[in-house]
Amino acid sequence: MRTWLRNLPLRRAFSLYILFYLLVGTAVCFALLAALGNTMNGLYAAYATLYFEQPPVDGRVYLSLSDVAAYQVTLEGTMLQIVPLSPHDRVCVGVVRALQTLSIPACLLSSVAVCSLSFYKRRLRAPLALLRDASQRIAQNDLDFHVAYDRTDELGRLCAAFERMRAALEQNERAAWRAAEERRRLDAALAHDLRTPLTVLRGQTDLLRARLPGGRMPVDKALAALEVMDAHAARLERYVDGMNQLLRLEDIAPQPRSISCGALCSALRGSAQALCGERVALAFETEDADAPLCVDADIAARALDNLLSNALRFARSTVRIQCGASSGALRLTVWDDGPGFPARLLDGELRPFGNGAQGAHFGLGLYICRVLCERHGGQLTLDNPAQGGARATALLCPVPDGLSSDDQKKS
Q1: Over the stretch 326-383, which tens digit does the pLDDT of each residue have?
Q2: Architecture of domain 257-410
Q3: Can you give the residue ranges of every domain in the chain?
Q4: For domain 143-251, is the CATH number 1.10.287.990?
Q5: Residue 23: which of 123, 121, 115 has the closest Cα?
């Protein structure tokens, strides 16, 4: 019963409060009127005893009290005797009659006042204080708190909604911080990795400018310098293309569609076979072919292409792909028989332009795959199995149509 009363909607709870305190006020009012009536009866009895010392000559009599005197009157209206009230009795009669007149409105108003104060104290003060404190802390950009209120009435639901809003703001703030940190690392990587090809280009340019006009550089050496410059210029172009590709990832919004796991895996198999060609032996396994999925097939294909491209760089002879469903999510696992992932990647240091970039590669494949998985509500995990090689598992979770994982968190 107590729990039921605590969780009553505010409108019903206020109605019960009003009813209860009106009943209490009515009882108090009746008790007060009874006490005042007893006081007046005592005065009547005192003066009646005084009058009955002189019995009337004829007929029955009754006693009447005014503010200043007591009257003995017969039923026929004959005034028999008037006795002035004592000063004390005058004050007493005036107070009693004033209290009798004011007792009903005073009790009603007191009941309403006490009811309002009690309702505010028991049902409004705590949640309003919680919401006020929460709004102040949010305004100060302090989200390290929780809004906890143990009732399910309207204010309880409002506090729960406020807590969801706070959690969403905290998630968004963390996501923004991670994005800013990632952008800072990208900028640092860009500045660092551009320095080498630019230095080479400038050095070769200075060399050609200094020696070529005077004929002090043979043609073959000049051509070799131009080849070096061309190679580094091509590297810069690939680097810029990679940066543009990373920047375009921010605009990706999953467009999930219903598809069976078997149909999606069949499409991915063809792409994987074309990518592998004759370089390595490809083993493609499909699990839970009849399981329904709701994923963006383009993002799934792009994630697999990046994982497979990374595996082909290090595989010695075999790459194995496993495609299946896991609790409604698409699971893509790529094994290779290469040397395995370095320890820094297994520890979570997965970043572009820094995952062991070599030659024409900038370490973008795994990073892009991770971003694609996160945009699709999933994640990328890396490990080195006990049997050797490297294993990468991409999980693409179901996302409502038209919503990215970030949008889903905000909603």
Answers
A1: 777 899 999 998 888 888 777 766 666 554 444 444 457 788 888 888 888 888 888 8
A2: 2-Layer Sandwich (3.30)
A3: 2-133, 143-251, 257-410
A4: no
A5: 115
